[in-house]
Amino acid sequence: MTPEFIKEENAYRLYNEDNEMIAEITYQPQGEYVVAGHTFVDPSLRGQGMAGKLLDHLVSEMEQAGKQIKAQCPYVVKKFAEQPEKYGAIDYDNHE
Fold it and tell me: Are 69 and 76 in contact (CB under 8 A)?
């Protein structure tokens, strides 16, 4: 099942049935790219790949917008380094 992420300001968030935010990835627009600044996953969701789903959602949205992502969040930095074949095309630092 794909989670339903909600776009709010410069973030994609997931809420539980009590309307509590339980996961998010934030970004800041910087012209032709965005800076991925923070990823949060509630402890109740950890180990389920939710951070990866958030990142992949951000990647998909930015690809559609024609923007690259500059990794600042430690999680995103790690994923970009571990999987250049998956994220290299959208990694801003890979194209400077």
Answer: yes
Parallel/antiparallel/unpaired status of strands 6-8 and 68-71: unpaired
Choice between 71 and 94, residue whose per-residue pLDDT is larger = 71
How far apart CA 26 and CA 46 sit, in angstroms, is 18
Q: How far apart are CA 26 and CA 37, in angstroms?
A: 6
Q: Categorize the per-residue pLDDT at 9 as very low, low, confident or very high, splitting at 50, 70 and 90.
A: very high
Cα–Cα distances in angstroms (integers) from residue 43 to residues 2, 46, 53, 94, in the given order = 19, 5, 15, 32
